[in-house]
């Protein structure tokens, strides 16, 4: 499993256009080979975190190099982000628990 953790902050006034592009990228990534899941969070202080998981390096690389994603990355640097930090790691251990009691 390849896990990307993308932390960022937006520039003032870009939220509506950013959300439009983010929705497009979320839709696109879901159709990529090897896609496992994606989660987005925004903290009270405005920092955003996106976690994306793929089931292999090749699949992750295909997403990183997808032309539409590359274009969105370029727009992010030019228009949307005041800063970002990205980390990509290979999972060395995973465990899942799901209660049968809801």
Summarize the structure.
The chain has helices spanning 15-29, 57-64, 67-80, and strands spanning 2-10, 35-42, 48-54, 81-90. With 102 residues, it is an alpha+beta fold. Helix 1 (15-29) packs antiparallel against helix 3.
Describe the protein in words.
With 102 residues, the protein is an alpha+beta fold. Helix content is 36%, strand content 33%. The chain has helices spanning 15-29, 57-64, 67-80, and strands spanning 2-10, 35-42, 48-54, 81-90. Strand 2 (35-42) and strand 3 form a beta hairpin. Helix 1 (15-29) runs antiparallel to helix 3 (67-80). The radius of gyration is 15 Å and the shape is globular. The two termini are 28 Å apart. 8% of the residues are buried.
Question: What keywords describe this structure?
Answer:
33% strand; 4-stranded antiparallel β-sheet; Alpha-Beta Plaits; alpha+beta
Topology:
Layout: E1 2-10, H1 15-29, E2 35-42, E3 48-54, H2 57-64, H3 67-80, E4 81-90
Antiparallel strand pairs: 1-3, 1-4, 2-3
Helix pairs in contact: 1-3
What is the CA-based Rg, rounded? 15 Å
Oligomeric state of this protein: single chain
| SSE order, one letter for each helix or strand | EHEEHHE
In total, how many beta strands? 4
Shape: globular
Q: And the CATH topology?
A: Alpha-Beta Plaits
Q: Which CATH-level-2 architecture? A: 2-Layer Sandwich
Total count of domains: 1
Stretches where pLDDT is under 50 for at least 5 consecutive residues are none
Mean pLDDT figure: 95
Euclidean distance between termini CA atoms:
28 Å
Question: Count of helices?
Answer: 3
């Amino acid at each position: 499993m390849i896990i990307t953790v993308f932390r960022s902050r937006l520039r003032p006034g870009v939220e509506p256009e950013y959300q439009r592009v983010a929705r497009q990228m979320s839709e696109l990534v879901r159709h990529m080979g090897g896609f496992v899941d994606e989660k987005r969070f925004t903290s009270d202080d405005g920092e955003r975190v996106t976690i994306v998981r793929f089931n292999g390096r090749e699949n992750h690389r295909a997403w990183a190099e997808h032309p539409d994603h590359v274009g969105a990355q370029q727009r992010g640097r030019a228009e949307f982000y005041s800063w970002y930090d990205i980390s990509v790691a290979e999972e060395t251990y995973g465990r899942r628990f799901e209660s049968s009691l809801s």
